[in-house]
Amino acid sequence: MIKLALSDMDNTLVPLGARAVSPSTREAIHEALDAGVLFGPSTGRDTVELMRLFRADRACFQTGVVSNGKRVLARGRTVSLTLMPHDGLVAIARALEGARMFLVCYPAEANLLNAIYAVGAPSEEVLNSYEARIKFVGCMVDEVPDVDFVAATIACPDGPEQMDQTRRIVAEVAPDLRAVSPVPGWFDIMPKGVSKARGLHELLDATGIGIDEVVVFGDAENDLEILRGVPYSVAVANAMPEVAKAANYHIGACADEGVATALRELARAARAGRMPDFLKG
Predict the structure, then answer these.
(1) By residue range, what is the domain housing residue 137?
(2) This prediction's pTM
(3) Considering all CA atoms of the chain, what is the largest pairwise distance in Å, rounded to the nearest integer?
(4) Separation of alpha carbons 51 and 112, rounded Å
């Protein structure tokens, strides 16, 4: 039986750019929780953003692999926390100076009043376009502030060629970090060796749940490693082709609330002591 369900957020559980998860999706999460199935996000987003996306419904992210595995939560307890190397962020920010790409840094001690720093954003207009698309509120600064950060991203507004250039820059100036793209025009920056997959194993160790008792939903590049590491890997219908190929099972699209439908089925199956139909065949 499935005891844990983990879902990516953007374009898996909630359409990118939406202000919050739909009420019906939150209802489906609670149905799973009430049936005894742990639920949590498996996402590049950190906790302050999850507060907004779940409309402060903390039950939806008491457990999870967040910030791409840099923060792991189990039943409200922090299992592990990995901070971003400050010197690596400074090196990236300096390498991007004068370009239209810019670094976005997320403080480890975050709250709804704490700034997310947009380092070297070329203009308020470019920053505003990303704020509207990704749904965050950034404060423009010239340098990386001297505080602890749990996450960093890079905005690339000028297409695939610029994306390739950004990957090369990160590899050259911060070899201990890697760039992974969850959506076009946007990179998550992660320490090598840190991933959703590693975070999952830390979560399983903390909960005593087995690898064959977890289902993982995803759609994008930063989901590939975790999906490849579990038997019950599920891609939404709008997933990238590589993700769809990597997943062992498939459900409806994010826009059609495919994960919510799967969670309701999972809740019914848990109460009946059986596997859900979407994980059969």
Answers:
(1) 86-191
(2) 0.92
(3) 60
(4) 8
